[in-house]
Specification:
160 residues, Aminopeptidase, 5-stranded mixed sheet, 4 helices, 5 strands, 36% helix
Length: 160
């Protein structure tokens, strides 16, 4: 297995993996709020890749037997001019996507991708890494905890 930086040649693989992730999220969403819109496959990868490009980010792909089997995307956003009012503002990287193809999970590929993006963040002066995790995605929560992450903020929801 090797980790490479994203190249446009792999756009369809990114689309496929992001759609697989969203379909999984939909399947575990107890609130039934998530969906895979008919334009998701075509547009979401482009939205994420533009976010990466516009925010000093990277997209890394895991390649196994000449197939893309996983990806991670991370960004290093600039702080707003008022962020300092209620935050110490250490430089941080944000993981915006992480997906490993379903049939090969739990083989260390996600950890390898995490190590790669964390090194990129650290090499760029980041002191912290943030990642939002869907609350119903227990497997992801356990994965991140195993890799040294902990919850700092939580979003609560109530149906009216």
């Amino acid at each position: 297995m090797k980790i490479i930086e994203y190249e446009e040649y792999y756009l369809e693989d990114v689309r496929r993996l992001l759609t697989e992730l969203e379909e999984y999220i939909v399947s575990i969403d107890k609130d039934n709020l998530d969906r895979v819109h008919e334009e998701y496959y075509e547009k979401m990868a482009l939205v994420d890749l533009a976010n990466v490009e516009n925010n000093n980010g990277k997209c890394y792909l895991a390649i196994l037997n000449n197939n893309v089997v996983g990806l991670i995307m991370g960004i290093i956003p600039e702080y707003d001019e008022y962020d300092y009012l209620d935050y110490k503002c250490p430089k941080r990287g944000i993981i915006i996507e992480l997906i490993i193809q379903k049939n090969i999970r739990s083989k260390g590929i996600g950890t390898k991708l995490m190590e790669t993006i964390e090194k990129y963040f650290k090499d760029n002066g980041c002191e912290y890494v943030l990642v939002d995790v869907f609350a119903y995605n227990i497997k992801a929560l356990n994965f991140y905890e195993k890799n040294g992450y902990h919850s700092r903020m939580m979003t609560n929801i109530k149906k009216l």
